[in-house]
Amino acid sequence: MSAGKVTGDRFRISSLLAKRLAERGISIRTVEREAGLPPGFLNQEKIHAATAQLFALWKAIGHISGDPAIGLKLGAESRFERFEPIQVAAVCSRTFGDALQRVSRCKILTCPEEIRVQSDGAETRINFVFLQDEGAEPEVLVDVCLAWVVALGSRGSQGQIRPLRVELARTVRHRELFENHFGCRIRFKAGHNAVVFRSEDLARPFATHNEELLKILGAQLDRELDELRSDAGVGELVRLTLKRTLAGGRPGRADVARELHLSVRTLQRRLNDAGLTFQRLVQDTRHELALEYLGEVTIEISEVAFLLGYEDTNSFFRAFHEWQGATPGEWREQHMRSAYSRSTDKPKTNR
Q1: DSSP assignments along 269-338, one per residue
Q2: Which domains does the chain have, with CATH numbers?
Q3: Is residue 144 over pLDDT 70?
Q4: Which residues belong to any copy of the HTH araC/xylS-type domain (predicted)?
Q5: DSSP letter assigned to residue 38
């Protein structure tokens, strides 16, 4: 896959992954073949993959390894020299919460993925969300993500930060293996995949904090972010940011500029240079998401209005009618009829 132009669905894969798999006796070529990837895919200097390719890759790794703990082992990498710059920056952060925020903000460098940190009183839940996900993420990839964040907290606090529990959407399997690894109870058949910590742990200082190294890494990450902005195009980056921040809110120029590490003036200048307006990008993004949400019959129309950041349902109805020439309910009904017709339409055969 070309490592050229950044798209809205592109993950950066560590060039060290092939070496780490080979060390565990996993055939790189077999993994590539089973995942439907071209030969030599994992041997590129810069490896990028769409969500579907990433999922196929990790499914293949899980299947070929035959090891139910492979994701845990790969996610809990302890060799500092194998850390990506973002991982090093996380370990050097002031606190666990600072580390999580830093990694979450830097995700735009690597992939359409969010780290969601949700506090509810004494507990804080952390889960990873793949923004271009069209199906369930592979279990082995879930294991990698959760093992990584637990290892980060433990390493930075020298073992003082431990999870309260891990929640997995899968059915009960290998309970003892997972509880031994995470050092806490596992809740299977959960509604999502997440790791839960004590909220007070987010303020716990990291013994590995290194302000000088953090400044050096910050400068490097800023340079990479500048390259990404230039490569992807400001319009695409604004749309991706809006998709992450629209739900229940009304992000403005200042909010988007802050997410992209730009000043409002610089953001506006780049939009002008590209012949774009912020308001048009907001409307286009809302239109795109509205069609996606309305295609899901389990989402109420009033909820769609909320998810798109509208103050009330009537405002959404007016905007949608301008886009589609129909009300949201009329469009959904027509869409459902068309989908049903396609599913029942059988190809004609020659007799």
Answers
A1: HHHHHTT--HHHHHHHHHHHHHHHHHTSTTS-HHHHHHHTT-SSHHHHHHHHHHHHSS-HHHHHHHHHHH
A2: 11-203 (3.90.1520), 233-339 (1.10.10.60)
A3: yes
A4: 236-334
A5: P
- Which residues make Cβ contacts (< 8 Å) with residue 349, sequence separation at least 6? none
- Name the residue type at position 158: Q
pLDDT at 224 (0 to 100) = 64
Nearest partner of 305 among 322, 295, 326, 320, judged by Cα = 320
d(CA 148, CA 144): 6
Strand order in the sheet with 113-120: 113-120, 123-130, 194-198, 165-167, 185-187
Residue 231 C-beta-side C-alpha neighbours within 13 Å? 16
Calculate Rg over the CA atoms of the chain: 22
The per-residue pLDDT for range 235-279, each reduced to its tens digit, is: 878 887 888 788 767 889 998 888 777 789 888 888 888 888 999
Residue recorded with tokens 């990506």? 84
